[in-house]
Write a structure and sequence with these properties.
By secondary structure, the protein is an alpha+beta fold. It has twelve helices and 49 strands. The strands form twelve sheets. The protein has an eight-stranded parallel sheet. Strands 3-2-4-9-6-7 form a six-stranded antiparallel sheet, with no helix packed on it. The chain has a five-stranded mixed sheet with strand order 8-5-10-1-49, with no helix packed on it. A hairpin with a 2-residue loop joins strand 6 and strand 7. Helix 6 (about 435-450) runs parallel beside helix 7 (about 475-485) and helix 8 (about 555-565) runs parallel beside helix 10 (about 620-625). This is Beta-galactosidase. Keywords: Glycosidase, Hydrolase, Signal.
């Protein structure tokens, strides 16, 4: 095995990380891989690569409207009066509830002016958009360079004809999200049960290589080829040997024949047991060549949801020189590295066979739409990652990409955190005429080419969701998937009741004990089954009243109905219980839907999430957590849980429900003797039944103790026991007088605070009493303000944001700037008074982004409608004044407490 020094440097740098026991599962996953991929590969350190990536997210000028100014595509057009935005951009800051087609529909324009580095001369340079919604047209330096139809797959532009290295360059993008039946999904947005918004709503990059380079699979257009195609051929659990294949396509853009050698190396995160091979390749001028390199891995560490082991696959292309000259770094032509997983999947009538062993449990997860509160679809990478973390913590092991390919950052997170993915092509209840069919076929090919290297991909769904398509369509798109992935482990899925389902390896349906309309009446051809959507329960498809659609701020009683409905219900619907009880051939199902999301054809958002649109958990989130394993190798998706589903309000139920995956639960009420109950299960069904303690919460007893000077004794304490030992604990107290505003940053493990101008975080303000207990029954309005290199996402001209408190909390969104520094967020009540809660302050530091970005400083994006970021270098006198004001506010609050105590004693005396 002859491995180059540069090759080893890349492998060592990618393997460097702290010991696993010093990090959480999510942190280990993030740090050991590099946070996010670019066009399917990792960004490598400058000293180890001949391929360079530049961020193009920052510094775009934006215009919205059907009447664009004359000459808008020209390089010399004056766009100084246009709004400045950064990507991802969704064309507008949406209301919290943006269903019913309240979003803008129509064309928007983006212009980006930048100076291209002089060393791009002589290189091959491409502009890579991860997603532009709808129809898009792209101009480079005044000339039209590309046109694209569809919003969910990459748009790639070869810049060789137009880019001017060392000079000013202008890119213009027109994006139009208007209704158009000529491309998927095709159905008018007014008739869609989800929402797609607009703009350049995913990341953009400039990728530079030499004239001899590894191609991109979506750009190359090669069936079952292009770029790097990794697959697992076989895996022997007995010998722990795995056989994999690495197919590599290399392009030669020169006028001469090129003799090269292609080198493939695989290392695990700790750099042990590396395996590498080299293959020669001769490429004619202005052509491509391909090699397929087999590798045999010893002591293989296979990928699975509960143990998502990943390897670094590094591929290098070298000039075919001999002797000592073969290792000359100057002869390195191109290189790419990516994270891959070694795993085999078989889906049989016995269930899911993963890495040669029958998966011991039903595979249960959720569907995912990509929108986020206020952002719409323009969700940055950090929130993509956080979504995967939250879903994995809930115990989910599989995600169906409803109803389109997801953001690459989300796919990266699924690989690294242990979430299987069912990749679906764009489409929903619509078949169009004209070029529609051909564009569906192209989408199917492109989604396989983009996502084929992800170990998380379990199945492909090439059909159009719930659509009456032509008779030959189902077989054709199924065959396209197998053309693009002609190797073991390729499975396609289709509704059992749909035309052409006989061609598919896996059929969608409900178990015979589940939904009475969609349950399996007669099993077809001994095929395996999966439930693509379970849990929803609406009265009519016009009204959409439901026991499962519950807004978080409606409170604990409705949320409890939803939680119990998802676990087990008396209605004839599929639940966690019925999926567990299903026969072996029915190997799992996906909840509809883990997050509240916006919809086109209905005025109400979909409220069926176990988290709301800001990703704040509902009671059902903890119900799902109670079904996860007590312990597994992937600590992120397991661990003991005990959760008291009672907020001790005057309106809370007397019967106290506890969700837990422990062996038993002890509940202590107001310091009394604990009562222990076993966590039960239903035979061949729900594994952990919620534990109910009758009449454990009594508001009048709370009142009696509080008035008797024993206010501190009022509490519910639950302890989870495994093997007779207490392993986890949850305490709930009734909230008292609202005294404080507490701020917290919703930031999951492994997510960096990167000053890249794109990342957005939720800052949540909670109204609490003096002990820190959240006061759920509170209707304050919170005013957020910010200082430092970040901005609040707001449409207020002064840059502040007013948010109502709902169920004890008010979230605000903060976008990080392009310069690192300290960010300070302050939250106060809208109508201050001497008896009002004390303001909250949160500070955090951001770090420099490791990505080179090309932009003009005067075009850095700000909030919509003139919101501004306060400078981070405020004068010391101003800082001292603010600190004194804060201290005075605290003193006034303490004096108010003394006065309040006196008033309370007087009231008690005269009562």
């Amino acid at each position: 095995m002859n491995i180059s020094p540069v090759f080893w440097a890349a492998a060592v740098l990618s393997a460097m990380s702290a010991p696993a026991d010093q990090k959480t599962a999510a942190e280990e996953a993030a740090s050991s891989t590099g946070q996010y991929s670019v066009a399917g590969a990792l960004r490598l350190p400058e000293q180890t690569t001949k391929r360079h990536v530049y961020g193009m997210n920052v510094g775009w000028k934006f215009f919205k409207g059907k009447d664009a100014p004359q000459g808008v595509t020209g390089a010399d057009f004056d766009d100084s009066s246009w709004q400045s935005v950064n990507l991802p951009d969704g064309t507008e800051l949406l209301p919290e509830e943006a269903s019913g087609c309240s979003n803008y529909q129509g064309p928007v324009w983006y212009r980006k002016t930048f100076t291209a580095p002089a060393d791009l001369k002589g290189k091959r340079n491409t502009l890579y958009f991860e997603g532009i919604m709808g129809k898009s047209e792209i101009w480079v330096n005044g000339e039209k360079a590309a046109e694209h139809f569809g919003g969910y797959l990459p748009v790639i532009v070869n810049l060789d004809k137009w880019l001017k290295p060392g000079q000013k360059n202008v890119i213009v993008v027109k994006a139009d999200n208007s209704n158009d039946s000529s491309y998927p999904p095709g159905k008018p947005q007014e008739s869609l049960d989800f929402a797609y918004f607009g703009g350049i709503y995913r990341d953009a990059y400039l990728i530079s290589t030499g004239p001899v380079y590894i191609t991109d699979p979506n750009e190359a257009g090669t069936v079952a080829g292009g770029g790097i195609f990794f697959r697992t051929e076989s895996l022997d659990p007995r010998t722990r040997k795995g056989k994999v294949g690495v197919k590599v396509q290399v392009a030669n853009n020169t006028d001469k024949e090129q003799k090269v050698r292609v080198q493939a190396l695989m290392t695990d995160p700790k750099g042990v047991d590396p395996v590498g091979e080299t293959a020669p390749l001769v490429i004619p001028p202005h052509s491509t060549g391909e090699v397929d390199i087999p590798l045999v891995i010893s002591n293989v560490r296979p990928w699975s949801p509960d143990n998502p082991n990943l390897y670094t696959l590094s591929v290098e292309v070298w000039k075919a020189a001999g002797g000592a000259d073969a290792k000359n770094p100057a002869h390195l032509l191109d290189n790419r590295s990516m994270r891959v997983g070694v795993r085999t999947v078989e889906i049989t009538e016995k269930g899911l066979v993963l890495n040669g062993s029958l998966f011991p449990e039903k595979l249960i997860g959720g569907n995912r739409h990509q929108d986020f509160a206020r952002l719409g679809n323009a969700v940055p990478n950090n929130l993509q990652w956080q979504d995967a973390v939250k879903l994995r913590k809930a115990g989910m092991r599989v995600i169906r990409s409803a109803h389109y390919p997801q953001d690459p950052a989300f796919m990266d997170a699924c690989d690294r955190l242990g979430l299987f993915v069912i990749v679906a092509t764009p489409g929903w209840q619509f078949w169009g005429k004209g070029p529609f069919a051909d564009r569906v076929y192209d989408d199917v090919r492109q989604m396989v080419r983009r996502d084929r290297n992800h170990p998380s991909v379990m199945m492909w769904e090439p059909i159009l969701n719930e659509t009456h398509y032509p008779k030959d369509f189902a077989k054709k798109v199924r065959d396209l998937v197998h053309e693009e992935y002609p190797y073991p482990g390729c499975y396609t899925a289709c509704d059992a009741v749909a035309q052409g389902s006989e061609h598919y390896e896996v059929l969608y349906a409900h178990p015979s004990t589940g939904d009475k309309h969609w349950s399996i009446k007669e099993r077809k051809n001994n095929k395996p089954y999966f439930t693509r959507e379970f849990g929803d329960n609406v009265d009519t498809w016009s009204a959409h009243n439901s026991t499962s659609r519950v807004a978080r701020h409606w409170g604990e009683a409705p949320m409890m109905v939803q939680a119990l409905h998802y676990l087990k219900t008396s209605f004839p619907y599929t639940t966690y219980d019925t999926l567990n009880a299903a026969p072996a051939y029915h190997f799992g199902g996906c909840l509809w839907h883990p997050f509240d999301h916006q919809r086109g054809y209905h005025p109400d958002p979909f409220y069926g999430g176990i988290l709301d649109a800001f990703r704040q958990p509902k009671t059902s989130y903890y119900a799902f957590m109670s079904q996860r394993p007590q312990k597994s190798q992937n600590a992120l998706g397991s661990g003991p849980v005990v959760y008291i589903a009672n907020e001790c309000t005057p309106f809370s139920p007397e019967d106290v429900t506890v969700f837990s995956n422990c062996d038993s639960v002890r509940l202590s009420v107001n310091g009394g003797a604990p009562v222990e109950k076993k966590v039960g299960s239903y035979p061949n069904g729900l594994k952990r039944v919620p534990v109910v303690f009758p009449k454990a919460w009594d508001f009048m007893e709370n009142k009696k103790l509080a008035r008797g000077g024993k206010e501190g004794a009022v509490k519910l304490v639950a302890e989870g026991l495994i093997g007779g030992k207490v392993v986890t604990r949850h305490e709930v107290r009734p909230s008292r007088r609202a005294e404080k505003i507490r701020l917290r940053l919703d930031r999951e493990e492994g997510v960096e605070l990167s000053a890249n101008g794109s990342d957005v975080f939720a800052v949540v303000a909670e109204v609490t009493d003096g002990r820190g207990t959240v006061k759920r029954l509170n209707d304050e309005e919170i005013v957020f303000s910010i200082e430092g290199p970040a901005e609040l996402l707001t449409d207020s001209p002064d840059g502040t944001l007013v948010q109502p408190v709902k169920w004890g909390s008010a979230p605000a969104l903060v976008r990080l700037g392009t310069q690192p520094g300290t960010v300070t967020v302050k939250a106060s009540v809208k109508h201050p008074g001497s008896q009002k809660p004390v303001s909250g302050v949160l500070k955090f530091d951001t770090k420099a982004s490791g990505l080179k970005m090309l932009f003009q400083e005067d075009a850095v994006g700000k909030s919509r409608k003139g919101g501004k970021t306060q400078p981070s270098s405020a004068g010391t006198a101003s800082e001292r004044e603010k600190a004194l004001q804060l201290e005075l506010e605290k003193v006034r609050h303490e004096l108010n407490n003394l006065r309040n105590d006196k008033v309370s004693r007087q009231q008690s005396h005269f009562e």
